[in-house]
TrEMBL record, chain A:
<dbReference type="InterPro" id="IPR002915">
    <property type="entry name" value="DeoC/FbaB/LacD_aldolase"/>
</dbReference>
<comment type="pathway">
    <text>Carbohydrate degradation; 2-deoxy-D-ribose 1-phosphate degradation; D-glyceraldehyde 3-phosphate and acetaldehyde from 2-deoxy-alpha-D-ribose 1-phosphate: step 2/2.</text>
</comment>
<protein>
    <recommendedName>
        <fullName>Deoxyribose-phosphate aldolase</fullName>
        <ecNumber>4.1.2.4</ecNumber>
    </recommendedName>
</protein>
<dbReference type="InterPro" id="IPR011343">
    <property type="entry name" value="DeoC"/>
</dbReference>
<comment type="similarity">
    <text>Belongs to the DeoC/FbaB aldolase family. DeoC type 2 subfamily.</text>
</comment>
<dbReference type="Pfam" id="PF01791">
    <property type="entry name" value="DeoC"/>
</dbReference>
<keyword id="KW-0456">Lyase</keyword>
<dbReference type="InterPro" id="IPR013785">
    <property type="entry name" value="Aldolase_TIM"/>
</dbReference>
<keyword id="KW-0704">Schiff base</keyword>
TrEMBL record, chain B:
<feature type="active site">
    <location>
        <position position="260"/>
    </location>
</feature>
<dbReference type="InterPro" id="IPR016161">
    <property type="entry name" value="Ald_DH/histidinol_DH"/>
</dbReference>
<dbReference type="Pfam" id="PF00171">
    <property type="entry name" value="Aldedh"/>
</dbReference>
<keyword id="KW-0560">Oxidoreductase</keyword>
<dbReference type="InterPro" id="IPR016163">
    <property type="entry name" value="Ald_DH_C"/>
</dbReference>
<dbReference type="InterPro" id="IPR015590">
    <property type="entry name" value="Aldehyde_DH_dom"/>
</dbReference>
<comment type="similarity">
    <text>Belongs to the aldehyde dehydrogenase family.</text>
</comment>
<feature type="domain" description="Aldehyde dehydrogenase">
    <location>
        <begin position="35"/>
        <end position="479"/>
    </location>
</feature>
<protein>
    <submittedName>
        <fullName>Aldehyde dehydrogenase</fullName>
    </submittedName>
</protein>
Amino acid sequence: MVTVSTTTRTAQDLTAQARDVLGVSRLTNHALTSWLHGLPGVDQVGCEGRAAALGTRSVKTTSKAWAIDTAIGMIDLTTLEGSDTVGKVRSLCAKALVPDPLDPTTPRPAAICVYGDMVATAKAALGDSGIHVAAVATAFPSGRASMAVKLADTRDAVEAGADEIDMVIDRGAFLSGDYLTVFNQIAEVKQACGTAHLKVIMETGELVTYDNVRRASYLSMLAGGDFIKTSTGKVQPAATLPVTLIMLEAVRDWRDLTGIQVGVKPAGGIKTTKDAIKYLVMVSEVAGDDWLSPEWFRFGASSLLNDLLLQRQKLTTGAYSGADYVTID
Amino acid sequence: MPKFEYAPAPESRAIVTIEKSYGLFIDGAFTRPKATFPTINPADETVLAEVSQAGPKDVDKAVAAARRAYEGVWGRMSGAERGKYLFRIARILQERAREFAVLETLDNGKPIKETRDVDVPVAAAHFFYHAGWADKLEYAGLSASGADVPRPHGVVGQVIPWNFPLLMLAWKIAPALATGNTVVLKPAETTPLSALLFAEVCQQADLPAGVVNIITGDGRTGQALVEHPDVDKIAFTGSTDVGKAIARSIAGTAKKATLELGGKAANIVFDDAPIDQAVEGIISGIFFNQGQVCCAGSRLLVQENVHDQVVAKLKRRLETLRVGDPMDKNSDLGAINSKAQLDRITALVEAGVAEGAERWSPECTLPAKGYWFPPTVLTGVSQTHRVATEEIFGPVLSVLTFRTPQEAVAKANNTAYGLSAGVWTEKGSRILWMADQLRAGVVWANTFNRFDPTSPFGGYKESGYGREGGRHGLEAYVTTAPSTLTGTAR
């Protein structure tokens, strides 16, 4: 079972805290710009080189077994399609409850991630299993709606029982330099979350530069995000190792600065065990052991689970089974 | 104990066959082993093989074989034909890459990750690059327009160090052969095995006998080769002391020489640098190959206002550096190449501490056998300390500070050496200004220890003379004076 600290924060609290971190008497766009643009830059070549180097770690035998089980436990098993039905969501929940019918020792994923209207269905299907229900909200995936709609979207999901809310930031506001709007929206959504956990999707594929990813990460943490998340999965590129590297450095340095630990969730495009292990290596070597748990690191994924299950079967039985030995849900 | 412990992932050594003993490779064949001495694995002190000590008579034979090959076949061969041999050697190096990587790691002590990802592929790249030049030398801009086409010197004597045994061999042999010279090469005493395996590659490539000769031995062999009257050119990479001795011994002769010697490079970090990447660059600058790199970024010059931040981040990063079995694919740092080198590093670090530097190393358990030194950071170092002026050639970083760009340049240039430097800043104009001011053969901007066959490499001052690699590197292997030999290479 995933344990998540539940703290209710009002937008006023968050603004006060932000003023404190920035050392300003009033939180203005100018103050936010100075702070965000004062962060050290990111050298693209160096960042990508470091991510690639971490990807060459050789993880075998016992450490591979540990990594596979850890990765399974960190998955937010996701379906976010216009064609989602009650039947589809129930089927996915059943998969989360029993990932591998051939091996009851298989760990369960951390959460099911659905659109807001499917929260009640997922909640009912998962019962008291301890598997969380995460809902995307705030006019996911584009975020192009009024604040009233975004807040209503959030409250709706929370009232339906969502344990976690995955919001999107206003990338238009961010790219036009209106950091205060981005801050206020995150802070208000955080307040609307109540005790639900807030993941802030930055849609790094639309932010494009690593400097932007670093600034968006700091802004999201400043505004009260419990997690920072790469992508909606609807924009290419989605999660990449270098982007996740920048985010892991950000949460590590943020804890040094404020004492507050924030989680990281790469989402979209992580499909294989090999990929997942590269991410875990990065978590371990960049952020450290404190982030190596579902409380602080998640994978937003759908097909990843089956590949992890296949590799798990291979390690347990010594033979590859094949796609027909894991279930399609 | 960390949550995510990597299980041992050793590369198999089964791929490489190491003979009990080796002779010399002269005139296309191996001689019978004699006067042998052992070469050991510095990671566990086991003997890998016995190799022969070449005496003056052997050097005579090797030089004579090279002369015959030069006059009889190689010097007369067309550039296009020479290029074919070089392409063939390059491809064989790629095909046998695992074998070379494993052998190099066993003999040198550096991690398999580095031999696999750097030493062997870059060595192959040097042969590919120079193969392309072989038939295009008249277009390399080496001689004035209308002048004679560049011609080879003849027989080249090459002496290489133990830090990159195969890569230095490639740096030396590829341009020599591309330009039509023949070669007698002496690998370092402690790391002869990859050169002897390369001799097999020459056989496999059907390279004409005598074009490449490889003679093993200690400094006496190197001296006999350098002083041999029938050698036309010397190429040496190694210590400044030996380089000076070579320069003295060839003074007054017609021999040409290139010397690539020591270094004490400054890696300069400004307050507007991309700090996380700079930390990576500092680490690859001084801990790559256990710091046994002539162009290592052994002096960190960090702007005083970010000193504490950079050092804190550096130390945290060093905690994740993995020191141990060089054959393990996850080892970042391997063994020091020899007892003598380990003693030198140890003595210099002790001198640094005695002079007031503060010594720090991450927690790491070093293997009981073999030659090991932990990654070490010396803070509070001043320009006057020995650890700031003398080349340590080990995994030891000396940290100094500066206040202004002018002071950074002055301190960086305040050394007897001048091989390389690094500049870390997000300001493009400052990079250009620094590159112009720094008296170093290579200046890296927002990166460090990057090697490419197209890029010339060499030093200022006591770091030597001549350039290797790129178009500039060809210059050392050709003359534009009219040849005394009819029908030489075109």
